[in-house]
Amino acid sequence: MHSLRLASILLLFAGCTMNSKQPNPSAPHQVIFVPGFYGTQLNNVKGDELWINASQALWGSDTLAWNHPDLKIKGSQEIKAGQVKQYVKILGGLINKNVYGDTIRALQETLGEEFNVHPLGYDWRQENHKTAKKIAELVKELKAKNPKSISIVAHSMGGLSTAYYLRYGSQDPTEAVETWEGAKQLDRVVISSTPFHGTLIVFHNMLHGVRFGLNKTLMKPETFSSIHSTYEMLPRYETPSTNEKLLMDVNQWEKHNWGLLSQPTPQRKAYTEQRLKRSGQFIEKLHMETAEEHSVRLPLLMAYSHGKDTVDEFQWKKKKLKWGFKDGDSTVTSRSAQLPKAFAKAFKNIQVLKSEYGHQDTLTDPSILEPVKIHLHQLLDR
User: Fold this and answer.
1) What are the Cα distances from residue 9, in Å, to 108, 121, 136, 242?
2) What is the DSSP letter of 22?
3) Which of 69, 248, 264, 354 is 20 to 30 A away from residue 382, measured at CA?
4) Taking the model in full, what pTM does it have?
5) Which residues, 6 or more positions from 128, have their beta carbon under 8 angstroms from its beta carbon?
6) How confident is the model at residue 2, as a pLDDT?
């Protein structure tokens, strides 16, 4: 399964451009950029960078595990989010590997001086509704400055948080009532390469972990399985397959020693069960049928990539998992990237675009950037 590990690693290490146009915080049109999984720098309480730099990848021994006493994961600690990770500096900056720097640069240069791209840093390990709350706080902060418009451009898992914000604002999934409050606060929205129906690569990484450079502890299987947001990206469709149903059953995780239950304890089983329950509540709210009276006039542009083999299914053969592939962007399948039916029904102005670029590069594709520019530049004519 080296190709699957490479797919995750390439989310970090692709490209090497670093020149970037400086943002203009006082620009009349504000664009919030919401990155995906892996997209924000993470630090320990001392301010030391854990995610990600060259020394950590090469010879670090830290872990990004969720710090929960019941899990007893060696080395887990309190972690705080920093800024959106744009580049990883290697050899003191002689080489710079792209994370989200190329995307932010492309957006800023394409949109021009009337627009300010504001990257939103957040702890990508947390539940997505908590990121939606951060989006709501930033929108409120920007509105206080009376800009002419506020829009969102979201990528990958950032699209899940954004979609939830559009529909429920900052409400907790356990008590959320559909209001489309977030949509009422914005002028335009762009969502790209988002796993609305999950991605099986998350489950793969819960079993095998992801190795970055020589660091074997940063995202080992139990670390990946401790992260709250990963459960919200397990595959879920309106009509779930037999295997998708298995992934929602904690007893199956215990039976097959999946994730945290590769080293089973009653506490780890309870934690896994709680994560599955909470993630189910989030996904249910995101996909539940919309009320007839709701009509969202916010213009929405949705982009996804295709043309690459992407893990989409698994089967048991001789007590081993065998993986199957379908069309996608190497991380998210084309069918998973489709909008939830409730959004397709509620939004009255939707534009859908397809790219042949890889998952991380969708928003740098000129065939996507130009429509994004037109989509947002319509605000200049108001």
Assistant:
1) 26, 20, 31, 30
2) P
3) 354
4) 0.93
5) 157, 160, 161, 164, 229, 232, 282
6) 36
Provide the phi-psi class of 289: left if phi over 0, else alpha when psi is between -120 and 50, else beta: beta
Q: Two tokens at 13?
A: 């290490």
**pLDDT value for 22:** 66
Look at residue 244 in the predicted model and tell me its pLDDT. Answer: 84
Q: What is the mean pLDDT of each run of 10 residues along the chain (382 residues)?
A: 38 41 85 98 96 88 96 96 93 80 97 97 98 98 97 98 98 96 98 97 96 90 98 89 89 96 97 98 95 88 98 83 95 97 94 97 97 98 84
Question: What CA dihedral angle connects 305, 364, 344 and 335, to 10 degrees?
Answer: 10
Dihedrals φ, ψ of 123, to 5°? -80, 100
Indicate if the alpha-carbon torsion angle 362, 230, 299, 135 is positive or negative: negative
User: From start to end of the chain, where are the E strands?
Assistant: 29-34, 40-44, 49-51, 79-84, 87-90, 95-98, 115-119, 149-155, 188-192, 300-305, 308-317, 320-328, 350-355
**pLDDT value at position 1?**
40
Contact 108, 153 (CB under 8 A): no
| Residue type at position 194 | T
Q: Which two tokens stand for residue 116?
A: 């300010």
Q: Which domains does the chain have, with CATH numbers?
A: 2-381 (3.40.50.1820)
What element of type H or E holds 183? helix 181-185
| CA-wise closest residue to 338 among 95, 210, 163 | 163
d(CA 268, CA 286): 27
Q: Does 52 sit behind a cis peptide bond, omega within 30 degrees of 0 on the bond before it?
A: yes
State how far the Cα of 380 lies from the Cα of 28, in Å rounded to an integer. Answer: 10
How many angstroms separate the CA atoms of 30 and 20, rounded?
18
What are the beta bridge partners of residue 215? 212
From the list 197, 204, 195, the residue with the least C-alpha distance to 8 is: 204
What is the token pair recorded at 361? Answer: 């590069």
What gap in Å lies between CA 260 and CA 223, rounded to an integer? 8
